[in-house]
Specification:
81% helix; single chain; mainly alpha; de novo design (two linked rop proteins); elongated
């Protein structure tokens, strides 16, 4: 049995899908290929690492893997903000995805804090 609620994992999957939707748009612009690849890697890594955390072998492993999810969310936020500043995708099109990244970061941060408190460290 996993550690994360199915609804949360589905939310993470939806986030990755939405990042890939942005990638599809970016591929029709003059956005550098390397940046597109970085964005795709970070945005989908959020999901891959969340699913890995779901099956973590221990509490420390769970915290470590969720911390990676947070880092990937930070990187995804950076790329989304850069893409908006460069107007490769209109900023309003990215605003909901940026809000979702922030919300997911808060949720993950609370999970990390709660797990640490419950494990005494």
């Amino acid at each position: 049995m996993g550690r994360l609620p199915d609804e949360f994992l589905e939310r993470i999957e939806s986030f990755a899908d939405r990042v890939l939707d942005v990638i599809t748009v970016l591929e029709t612009t003059k956005c550098p290929r390397r940046l597109i690849e970085q964005m795709a890697a970070a945005g989908t890594s959020v999901g891959a690492n969340a699913f890995e955390a779901d099956e973590a072998m221990s509490r420390p492993d769970f915290v470590k893997t969720l911390s990676i999810v947070n880092k990937e969310l930070n990187e995804t936020r950076f790329w989304l903000r850069l893409i908006a500043r460069r107007a490769w995708v209109p900023a309003p099109r990215l605003s909901e995805l940026l809000v979702e990244a922030e919300t997911l970061k808060r949720i993950i941060g609370a999970m990390i804090a709660r797990t640490r408190e419950n494990s005494g460290g």
